[in-house]
Design a protein that fits this description.
Length: about 200
């Protein structure tokens, strides 16, 4: 069973793509390349965008999939939770087909514009605070296709998971799952596809 889904942002989306500089910091490697001027706030934020070669902003499909898995903690299949601290039933019966989910405006045009979001963040290892500059998209929507095993999950259950993902988990940085208000969304289009033509029309 394929389900064409469009979600619309209810709060701004803050991106934070994992960069090479961040990888060096996490791994404890040599950061010689990154010493000195880090650039302007906008330059620092630009490196954290999810954007394709044409500058179109997107959300990685795996990020949406992870959001749905996390929302499984609020639902059960029989007597078992869909998602627990250690495991999840969702990957066995549901997949997000799209690797890149392009962000668009209300007219369906790809988004390229974004704002700089600057706020202090806590460094877990030290407890200290630093200023962090990240790209923020204030008005956004995107679409994706779910491939669902109907023998495992009913359309109603899948819809409930997606709805809770938007309200209780969210996407991007400082989302509800991280005690923040950003990245919340609602479903604006939901269509169970009978064939490939239905999916093309939904897109």
């Amino acid at each position: 069973m394929k389900i064409a889904v469009t979600i619309q942002g209810m709060t701004p989306l803050i991106m934070n793509r994992f960069t090479e500089a961040a990888e060096v910091a996490v791994s404890g490697g040599t950061a010689v390349t990154f010493k000195g001027d880090k650039g302007t706030p906008r330059q620092q934020a630009e490196a954290k965008r999810y954007a394709d070669a044409d500058g179109h902003l997107y959300i990685p499909g795996p990020n949406i999939f992870a959001c749905l898995i996390a929302a499984g903690t609020f639902h059960k299949a029989g007597k078992s939770k869909l998602t627990t601290m250690k495991t999840s039933l969702i990957p066995a019966g549901l997949m997000v087909e799209d690797m890149l989910c392009t962000l668009t405006n209300a007219d369906g045009e790809p988004l390229t514009e974004w704002e700089v979001d600057s706020r202090s963040v806590v460094i877990p290892s030290t407890g200290g605070r630093i200023m962090c500059h990240r790209p923020r998209v204030d008005a956004w929507q995107t679409q994706f296709t779910l491939d669902v095993d109907g023998a495992m999950f009913s359309p109603a259950l899948v819809r409930a998971v997606v709805d809770d993902a938007g309200k209780k988990i969210g996407l991007g940085d400082f989302r509800p799952a991280r005690k923040g208000p950003f990245g919340r969304f609602v479903v604006s289009h939901w269509e169970i596809a009978k064939d490939e033509e239905t999916l093309k029309k939904a897109a």
